[in-house]
Amino acid sequence: MNSLIEPPASPGFSLRVKVFTPDAAEENDRPVRCFRVITSPNITIREFCTEASRVHEINYGQ
Fold first, then answer.
1. Which of 4, 33, 38, 42 has the fewest CB atoms within 10 Å, i.e. the most exposed one?
2. What is the model's pTM?
3. Helix (H, G, I), strand (E, B), or coil: what is residue 35?
């Protein structure tokens, strides 16, 4: 039997995203929204931001 053995799948990442108002600059400013994005560890920052934007739109419609 000639089967290939593949490496185990990489675990996903669960990252918490905090959305602040555009004028938030102080340490005591609070986020207006918080949500999690679960994604592969093999994606780029741009791909993560695209996925976070998609999840935000699904959850909040914006």
1. 4
2. 0.66
3. strand
